[in-house]
Amino acid sequence: MKTIFITLLLSIATLILYSQNQYYTMPQCNNDTLKYIEKNYEQNKARYIGKTLQVLLDESELKFEEFIPAKFSPWVRDKSLIGKLELISFPIYYSIYMYDIYIYIDAPYTLTWEAAMDLEGDESEPWGPKYYNFYKGIKIKDIYIYKEKDGHRIENYTRP
Prior knowledge:
With 160 residues, this protein is α+β, with helices and mostly antiparallel strands. The protein contains five helices and five strands, in the order H-H-H-E-E-E-H-H-E-E.
């Protein structure tokens, strides 16, 4: 009896863990870009925490065109981080909505703001292979989704 109970308990725990880290395809999200972002990068962000940006990008069905690198503030407590990249964001526009996927970089902080700006060149250049190769090795610390509707921030919003 104990064996059956333990087996059942382990099975339930495995199902819960699997469902929390499941990848959702665009068709599973009814081809709704915003629902896809919420399912994969907001509700299931644990799937990517601790992995490289390459894992997220290679798995993603989104077409990233814009990206915005951001550096640590000069007021950061650890002054050795000044001049290093803190995050990279990918804004996604969908009808009257804008979702910005903030990907926070984890240690070691090897990418510098200066190197990112040297690479950038033309500001209007879309996300492409040279940026992918530059950023792909960063380790993901956290993911946050900033949401706007008609230019106004919306909180606690989830697609129906």
